[in-house]
Amino acid sequence: MKAQPLAHVASLLRAAACGSLLTTIAAANEVPVVALTGPTDGVALQAGTYCKITANASDRDGSIVKVEFSVDGVVIGEATRAPYEVTWNNPRAGSRVVSVQATDNEGAVSRWDYAIVSSQARATDPQWTEGPRKGYQMTLYGQPGTSYQVQYSEDMRTWKTIRTVDVKHDAGIVITDTSAASNDTRRYYRFLAMK
Q1: Computed over its alpha carbons, how large is the radius of gyration of the chain?
Q2: Is 178 left (phi over 0), alpha (psi -120 to 50) or beta?
Q3: For residue range 105-118, what is the model confidence (pLDDT) as tens digits?
């Protein structure tokens, strides 16, 4: 510590005694508050569609600069003013962790890892096709690396497996059910993920 001249120390003591000594202490920056408002925890989405992700964010001692939205740790978008929301396009099938992170005007960050959503495989509506392969045709969009049993029922009680398909990429797989005798046959379809 550097020694202060005695005159300077005496001057500080006189100022303190007279009440004229001013001390400034800077307040610490408070972190922003952020909360995910949608989707709710545990919600089931349709793969290949879209979902709006929304959040509330505030900062008591400043302002919000941005709110980032992530799915499984990958940023999918950001909002710089309220309402804080982004659209999550084409969620893949499977369980996902949705997160939001708010940054204030002084660079403080707050994060909320909240919703675990499951995105279920989806398919287009079955359409009757004529041509070399008559039957009901649909397109399956599922989780890459997952196998699905394609099943049909005419009464929604008894289900029969047509085939098993392996989803290797994000693009849809066209499936044709040629076992239907005609387009007058009412059929219901489902896709069961194999464990």
Answers
A1: 30
A2: alpha
A3: 999 999 987 666 66
Summarised one tens digit per residue, pLDDT across range 25-38 is 667 889 999 998 98
Task: Pull the structure tokens for residue 176.
Answer: 């044709």
CA-CA distance, 90 to 74, in Å (whole number)? 14
18, containing H or E segment: helix 6-18
Q: CB–CB of 153/191 below 8 Å?
A: no
Q: For 7-15, what is the mean pLDDT?
A: 52
Task: Report the DSSP beta bridge partners of residue 132.
Answer: none
Count, residues in the chain: 195
| Nearby residues of 155 by Cβ (< 8 Å), 6 or more positions away | none
Number of continuous H segments (helices) and E segments (strands) in the chain = 1, 15
Q: With the CA atoms of 48, 52, 53 and 58 taken in that order, what torsion angle do they form, in degrees rounded to the nearest 10?
A: 170
d(CA 51, CA 86): 9
pTM for this prediction: 0.55
Q: In this structure, are residues 117 and 95 in contact, taking their beta carbons and an 8 Å threshold?
A: yes
